[in-house]
Amino acid sequence: MDQLAELVNILTVVTLISGVLFAAFELRGSRRESRRQSQILLLRSFESPEFVKGMRRLLDLPDNLSRAEIEKSLGREGIDLLWFWLGTMESFGILVFNREIDIHTVDQSFGGPVIISWQKLHRYANEVRRDTGRESMHEWYQWLAEQLERLERQEGRTAAHLREKEWRP
Question: I want to staple 118 with a disulfide (CB 3.0 to 4.6 A). Which of 54, 93, 140, 145 is the partner?
């Protein structure tokens, strides 16, 4: 009888360990799938005409314009695209900070436009902060641009068409 009880205890422990290992494996797979879905969402953002129009209009702006100069240059429709861009960058900054999207994916997808657009819009953002009395306006966009700049300084940056020219399928 002791042997039977001991065997049942061993089987119980093995079953529990197997259950924990299975749960850990499933959790890991779920996290990987969540990250993959977030990265697909990021890439699909390029499918939005508003995103592309906004990016194009912003990248065409001269650097260091004031808020008034940007608003005059862009016009009403352009301002709407600007705010769409700002909101999108805020969202991406939060997603990167929360590690829902890998910063390297953002860098590879559109690190250049994020950095360049922030160089063009940092004065605008500071004036909006001053005018609204909210230091938190566009905070995650600034954070994202600064992180991408830091990543570029730390890891260097060589364009993919140069860096990967020897790649073969």
Answer: 145
Q: Where are the beta strands (DSSP E) in the chain?
A: none
Q: Summarize pLDDT for 21-43 with one digit per residue, the tens.
A: 787 778 787 877 877 776 777 66
- C-alpha 133/C-alpha 62 separation (Å) is 26
Which of 47, 64, 79 lies at the terminal end of a domain, its last residue? Answer: 47
Residue 164: inside a domain: no
- C-alpha angle 149/85/147, rounded to 5°? 15
Q: Does residue 167 lie within any of the structural domains?
A: no
**Is the overall model pTM greater than 0.85, yes or no?**
no
Contact 109, 44 (CB under 8 A): no
Domain span at 27: 1-47
- Could you read off the pLDDT of 93-104 as tens digits, one per residue? 998 999 888 899
User: CA 43, CA 40: separation in Å to the nearest integer?
Assistant: 5
DSSP 63: T
